[in-house]
Design a protein that fits this description.
The structure holds 2 protein chains of 2 kinds. Chain A is of the alpha+beta class. Chain B is globular and about 35 Å long. Helix content of chain B is about 35%, strand content about 20%. The chains are: A alpha+beta, B alpha/beta.
Chain lengths: ~1250, ~140
Amino acid sequence: MIEGHSARRILRMCACLLAIAFPLAARAQQPDPAAPAPAPASREARVLIVATYERKSDSTRFQYEGIVSTLNSRPAGVRTSVHYLVSESGIPDSFSPEYLDALAQVLRARFKGQTFDLVVTIDTLAFEALIGPARDIAGKAPIVFSGLNWSPDRIDALRQAGANTTGIIERLDVPGSFSLMRAAFPKASTVLIVQRGTGFGDRLAAEIRPQLRAARGTMDVRWCTARTPAQLFDEIAALPSDSVVWYLSLDNLIAFVQTHKPPERLWVRPAFGVYESALSLGLTGGRVISGLQEGRAAGAMALRVLAGENARSIPVSRDAALATVMRDPEIARWGIDKAGLPANVRIIDLPTPPRPFSEWAREHWDIVVVVCALQAGLIALLAYNLARRRRAESEATTRGALIELVTDTLPVYISYVDADERYRWVNRRYEEWFRCPREQIIGRRISDLFPPEVYAEAREHIARAMAGERVRFTSHLTSPHGKRQVRDVMFLPRRGPRGENLGFFVLVNDVTAQREAEEEARESVRRFRSVFENAGAGIGLTGPDGRFILVNDRFCSMTGYDRRTLLTKAFRDITHPDDLSENTSLFDDLVAGRADAYSLDKRYLRPDGSEWWASVTVSVERDSGGKPGCFIGVVQDISPRKRAEDALRTSESRLRQAQHVGKLGMLDWNLATNELIVSDETRRIFGLTKEQPTSVDALVGHLHPDERERVVKSLSDAAAGIARHDLEHRVLRPNGDVVHVRAIAELLSEGPDKPVRLLGIVQDITEAKEQEQARRRSEATTRVLLEAIPDMMFRMNRAGEYLDYHAPDPTRLLAPPEKFLGKNVREVLPKDRARECVEALDSLFRTGQPQIYEYEHRRRDGRAAHWECRVVLVGPDEALLLLRDVTQRYNAQSRLRDSEQRLRLMVESTPLAVISWNTDFTVASWNPGAQRLFGWSSQEAIGRHASFIIPEAARSYVEQRWRNLLANKGGLRASNQNLRKDGEIVYCEWYNTPLVDPSGKVLGVASLVEDVTDRRLAQQRQDLMMAELDHRVKNNLAAVISLAEQTGRNAPGYPEFLDTFMGRLRAMARMHSVLAGSRWKGADLRTLVTRTLEAFGTGAAGRVSVQGDDAKLSPRAAQAIAMALNELATNAAKYGALSVQSGSVRVSWEVEPLDAGKRRLRLKWEEHDGPPVSPPTRRGFGSELIEGAIAYELRGTARLGFHPKGVTCDFDLVLPSELESDYPPGLDNAPAAGPLTEPA
Amino acid sequence: MNMVEPKLHGLRVLVVEDSFLVAKSISDILSDLGCQVVGPFNNSADAVGVVDAGGCDAAVLDVNLGGETSEPVADDLSTRGLPFLFVTSYTSPALLAPKYAAWPRVHKPLSRDALSDALVKSVRNRGLHGSSDAP
């Protein structure tokens, strides 16, 4: 709508408006020859304001209200009537012709024919709407408007519509905005100016170019070159962090914030529309810095106004008033916080400010933080005036109040009496005197207020004062309430400028209390004298130095000194040295003001050296400044009391002590009164506090329930004089403790049958009891322990003599007890053993540390026994030797040592690498074999992660194995490449064992590693050779076949020989091929049969049926069977079933497992539907090949049958187990049954 | 074609060979040379039985009998001072004990002449001249 307005512009515009509307008023300041003819001053100026705005976004409204309020605030005599057309409903997004039309019609309908002196609008929409009806409404009145988007052609349009366009076209204050931006970001290094590409933006740019030129030295000014929003955003993102983005137009900004997170600092030109749009787009908080900056400035300004100090220097202009639009109270608060505005400043959000705003504001607030641009200046001024007025008022009030405060506070009656003896002014004291408000006093005469006798007394003084003399006198009078008072009265005459009598000031000082005090002091001195001399106690006065100033007779006689001598001494000189330090310290406290008095019992020394006890109370007399003046000591001789007390205390304390030490409590039971007195110890025994009352019943209640009856019986017997009470029993304390006591009680009688008291003692014997029980327990335990301990024990003294022994098995003693008890170890034991023992004893007594040594003892039967001897201290001069047979342990240990030794030797000397791993796959141990294999020494290897011997290629394989190992899921064997220190790759076989503790936790892994690189290479070579061999054999067979063929071609005489021979060679080649295909592991029978038959071209014809179990044939069996089948097939093809179309061959077999992996093979060849068969007349080589070879080579049978229906052949043979080799043992380079097995 | 070799005529020659075809070939050659073929046998045990029974004067032994060698037969023959030679397809003597390393041998594939010459040499060296009734 409105592109932007600054407050200054609006104010300036208002000034122009007024200048137009009221030329007389304005001319003095701003002569304007172009202005229209002045309107009569008496006439009310009619102003029409046309505005359109939305209710919600009403910054525009504030501007209008600002204008209205400015117009209305003209000085009296200038009257305006403001007509206000507001279209508040549904502003369309674009300037639709319909809407403009409607608006124009409203304008016409409402205002046509009316005469206005001014028509004002500042918004574009209203401007557009006005073009049509302008002439009708405004006539020749100037139209004042403001707006940026109004292009010259629109103004032309308005002009052509007949409107007076001499009004001011205001422009956005772009340079002002730039200054504000600079002030807001004084340290910004870069500013990016974003403008719309054409027209409007260019004009703005042109306006600020001079400023930009000026700024160039201080900041990098860039013009946005972006043509698309995306380019713009990139450009913004590339700016240094302390940059400012200065938007000259809104379009890009909106696009920007809709698609991007806004930059941290975004300077939005402080124009309403832009700012509000920014807010509505969600740019709140600290982001929209313009609002914050202005808030801050507004706060600062408000503060200054409040303080009233520099208010004068604040020009009421745009910059000072800070056209602050803070529609968002949050932002306002933030800004004001930053400015440090006092906490009592309230921020209110006023969507619609009350009207008239300034009055409302004055009424309610000291300071108003502006929420509307235009009002800022007004309010600031308002606040300034307010503050100035308040300050003036307060200054005046303060001066009067001060005088009043002083006079009211003084304890003096102050008044002013005029020449007519009337009170003109009195202070508050008078109110107290007369008990009435001072208004009732003022105006009255002295003689009216005081009783006649008082007035009579004062009259003479009044006359003198009236005559101009200063008068002072003392007045004894009784107050209206009967209180007698003594007053020091002063009359101070007052003279006019010409010396005329203006009456006098009265100053009255109440000295009643002072006089009374003086009287009291005199009386007190009298009383003191009397007390001093007649007191029963000694009294001595000293100065702060402790020297006696004054002493009474009694004190002299007490101390044994005469008064004269005493007055030369200080109290210290006559005090017993033992009490001196306490006494001095107490006295010093008085001197220092830490105390006001003290009492103590102390000893004095008389001149003859005898000591006497006194109770002394010393108090101090201080002057008004708190400085000590004299010290008064009151002394009483308490020597006799002291002596008695001492004696008593001594005896009591002894008794108490004795009772306590002996845990002896006393009881005194008065049988007559049933009163019970108990000692503290008794209370302790019974668990009673000192405060608890005691009675016989209470004590009985504390007896152990099990024994209560017994004890009570015994007590009552004692009380009855039947028996002495002497019992051990238990007491149950309230806290549950059990105390063992021995109680003895005796009856104290005044005569027979007249028991008076039962005196008793109670002794706490718990400890003794417990000790005894503990001793018993301990003895029992010791006994049991001793019996349980298999060790032999000897108790010895420091010298090494046997004192005692304990032997669970006496037969193991070297000598009978009588031979060693009481004897020295040197006499008893062999020399070496005795020395060991003595040395251990020495160390033990020297260090106190238990000693252990082991020795071997050869038994009589020759076997070695190992003993462990522990020597421990059992007393200051006694040691205990504990001997234990550790032969078994020793043997086990030595076996373990041996086995460890063997194992270590094995690990050290094995050619295999032996490695143990920690669970994190680091090396724990590394034997020399590992060093040989991998090249790393154990120092280098231990602690390293396994990866140092694993090449990259094997890493994942090994890690998988490792995980399996730790999870106990296999991985026990591995075969992989490893890396040597020299970088060479070796093939290794790994045999791994997880090291598992008894609980199943894996502690690590042990690995045996074998270098199989050579074996692998050999195997690879062998595989190569095998392949080569196969290849050559095949080639050779092929060559043989070719040779035979060629030979036959040149010798055509033997066609049949050649055919047969070639067929047999081919059969051999086939067989070889089948075997080679299985890498000589054995030929598959089915393949062999099928291939053989296929060679005769019968495979696909369905004339052959092959049926049988899977069976592997050894190369030898394969060869024999292949040759036999070839003969059969050849025969069939020539003469048998395969020679005719109708014939068929069926080959079937069964395999029957036998022992030891052997298999029995029964194979049947059957020909069907061939030509009739007649038995051959001669058996040829073919038959021999079939029957002879099977029999000779396989020890089986092959039986040919020449049945008329077809030839049959039954094979029956035993196949060797698959493990059985065709080759003799020891044939190292025999073809392997396959490549060496790839280890798992 | 007179193939008979007079020095070998009537000589009882034991043939030990596991391959049916080769055994047949050797037997045929020996028959042609005028020898009396004993066997052939495809295993040592049968052959040793014949030797022990004094059923032969000389022997032709295949080394590899498939799962065993003919060494037991050779040992038996040596003990008895009977001449024999090896027939083998292997060029290396690895299969046999060292004592037979330098023993006369004929390599497969066999030719009549080679076998004949070798056999004659062996018989001569041993000082045997065929059977008693030989001319």
